[in-house]
Amino acid sequence: MTLRDRIPELLAEYGIPSAAIGVLRDGEITEFAVGVKTVETGEPATTDTVYQVGSMTKTWTALAFLQLVDEGTAGLDEPIRAYLPEFEVADPETTAKVTARHLLNHTNGIEEAFGAPGEADDIYERMVANISGAPQVFPLGHTHGYSAALGYAILARIMEVLDGKRWDDILRDRLFIPLGLTSTNSRPDQVDGTRAATGHLIRSLAEGPIVTPIDHLPRAFGPGGGITSTVRDVLAMAHVLLDAGLAPDGRRIVSARSVREMMRSRVPVPDPYLFGPEWALGLIVCDWHGETVYATDGSTIGQNARLRILPDRNTAVVVLTNGGPRESFARRVFAEILGPVPELPKPDPALKLDLARYEGVYERPGTRYEVTAEGGNLHLALDLDPRHAEFLGKPARLRYDLLPVSPAHFLMPSADPLEDTQTVALYDFTDGAARYLHTNCRVHPRRGTSITAAAST
Question: What is the pTM for the complete model shown?
Answer without folding.
Answer: 0.96
